[in-house]
Amino acid sequence: MKREHHSHPHHHPIPNPSIASTSNAKAGKAAMWEESQHDDGMDELLAVLGYKVKSANMADVAQKIEQLEEFMGTVQQDGLSQLASDTVHYNPSDLSTWLESMISEITPPPNFEPVMAPPPPLGSSVMMNDSFLAPAESSTITSLDFADQSMNTKSKSVSPRTQFEDCSSSNYELKAIPGKAIFSQQTQFDSSPREPKRLKPSSDFYSTTSSSLPLPTAAEPTRPVVVVDSQENGVRLVHGLMACAEAVQQNNLNLAKALVTHISYLAISQAGAMRKVATFFAEALAQRIFRVYPAAPIDHSYSEMLQMHFYETCPYLKFAHFTANQAILEGFQGKKRVHVIDFSMNQGMQWPALMQALALRPGGPPVFRLTGIGPPAADNSDHLQEVGWKLAQLAETIHVEFEYRGFVANSLADLDASMLELRPSEVESVAVNSVFELHKLLARPGAIEKVLSVVKQMKPEIVTVVEQEANHNGPVFLNRFNESLHYYSTLFDSLEGSVNSQDKMMSEVYLGKQIFNVVACEGVERVERHETLAQWRTRFDASGFTPVHLGSNAFRQASMLLALFASGDGYRVEENDGCLMLGWHTRPLIATSAWKLGNQAVMTH
Fold first, then answer.
1. DSSP per residue over 350-387, as a string?
2. What pLDDT digit, counting tens, does each position of 220-279 carry?
3. Rounded Cα gap, residues 35 and 172, in angstroms
4. CA 585 – CA 484 distance, rounded (Å)
5. For residue range 27-81, what is the model confidence (pLDDT) as tens digits?
6. Whole-angstrom Cα distance, residue 279 to residue 263?
7. CA–CA gap between residue 69 and residue 162 (Å, rounded)
8. Closest by alpha carbon to 406, among 384, 422, 387, 427?
């Protein structure tokens, strides 16, 4: 289990951690807790998150929390830096008892004496019993880091079962072990002057049979080792996210605000994809609750840059481009002049592969015409034209006759067939391509119907569509939230095997932007309105399109593509009634479908 480090930015050091805050602050906090009490004797807010706190104990709990905050705020001053930075704190159900346990373990009583024998005469050898240093089984343990001392000790490894054998009788998964308790009565001092050594956290620390450890003095405070059950915290994290989304749907903003704050702390205890996706969803919920939105929309060029990193990190866009190109290539079979109208031009990453395939076609390549459609750039630069120049250079290199035109449009719904300079179908064959674009039209009433009507006027040989296999366009917010939480959790999990850390990080930002739009936005601003393949089938059927079945050849080649990408581990291609889906393990994530005009289905090879 990976340890996460978290500081407490709102705590301020005070001279004496054993003194509680002023009575006014205590009374204010106690009143705040009492307001949230439920009629059945349990606090409503904490009960939602799985904490069992009785009404009679609320004032006492508030005082203990404040006292614990004071102790945590003085960690740097009093030498408890290990507790503040290197310990993952876990909140059990019995909040009151746990707080009392933490306070008693952090703060020794006034007559506290360390569990060690008095120093023997100088010149004696030093022996240390380090039975607590062995790792507990299936647990996460913070490392020990004592202050520098001018002493040196020897240690020997023992069975890992002995470390936390007393924890089985505890009611909680959390057990703090005082750092001084590791020194037995046989501890003696070495008189030889040596450079003090510090115990460093490392992966092989617990397997070392001999290590140097400075001996703490009697004045040093206790440094606990904390065992964290992250699995239970993960369950509470998911429940907290769902409870917060339900509070948002019910417009219970006070409860939602409290829950989203708690969710952020729970997310810190997680590792890997779970922590990242929970953080993005918590931030999106906070933006919706507090109505804090970016001052200006993100520049499209920045979005394209993020998408390029996503393209390099995982095979989803590669799969989308490959399967769509395969359908277009087969639709253009035997045609002398072909015209592709791309609704998702971006950086034109899809088309070099198709151009190379056309160049190798038996009988020579056709005349290839490409119309790329995209939104205007924030700096008014003609980025679509720049993409066209690069593709023209490639076409010249591979000897493909090439025509290009970039078309700037704020929305696909603004297009008209007459703008595209279409030629008669007997002269030029048309293909329309859309990758992750059509779902954005669902934010504007009637927009998708208008675009499909324009597509019909183009009389295409084939229409290729790639969309997310998810339902994020339902009328009920809680259902959308639940669906998107599962969908993006799977996507983030699939990114964990990425080798390039920068591509991975930028890909997470790319997906995080989508999460923000799905969760925080509404109305025309919510454009990430993903729908399932079944829903798109219904819509295309109603608009007069007939499915083109992607054949076994496309399935086989798509599977080979995945085999080249990280050995294909975890990724799965499946055929669904003539369409191809790419998923992670058992969950489909994107779907490619092909369509044509008419009422007779066509099977590709």
1. THHHHHHHHHTSTT-PPEEEEEEEEPPPTT---HHHHH
2. 455 554 445 556 777 889 999 999 999 999 999 999 999 999 898 888 878 889 899 999
3. 28
4. 17
5. 444 444 444 444 456 666 566 556 666 666 766 766 776 666 665 555 444 444 4
6. 8
7. 32
8. 384
Residue with tokens 């927009």: 447
Q: What is the pLDDT at residue 396?
A: 96
Question: What's the confidence (pLDDT) of residue 290?
Answer: 92
Q: Is the dihedral of CA 397, 402, 406, 412 positive or negative?
A: negative
Nearest to 361 by CA among 387, 389, 331: 331
Report which of residues 267 and 373 the model is more confident about: 373
**What pLDDT does residue 105 have?**
53
Single out the residue of 88, 84, 90 nearest to residue 72, CA to CA.
84
Tokens of 492: 């983030």
> Half-sphere exposure of 414 toward its Cβ, with a 13 Å CA cutoff?
9
DSSP 166: G
Contact present, 562 and 319 (Cβ < 8 Å): yes
Q: Which residues pair with 407 in a beta bridge?
A: 373
Q: DSSP secondary structure string, 446-464?
A: THHHHHHHHHHHH--SEEE
Tokens representing 400 are 């493909």
E strand or H helix that includes residue 400: none
Please state whether 71 falls in left (phi above 0), alpha (psi between -120 and 50) or beta.
alpha
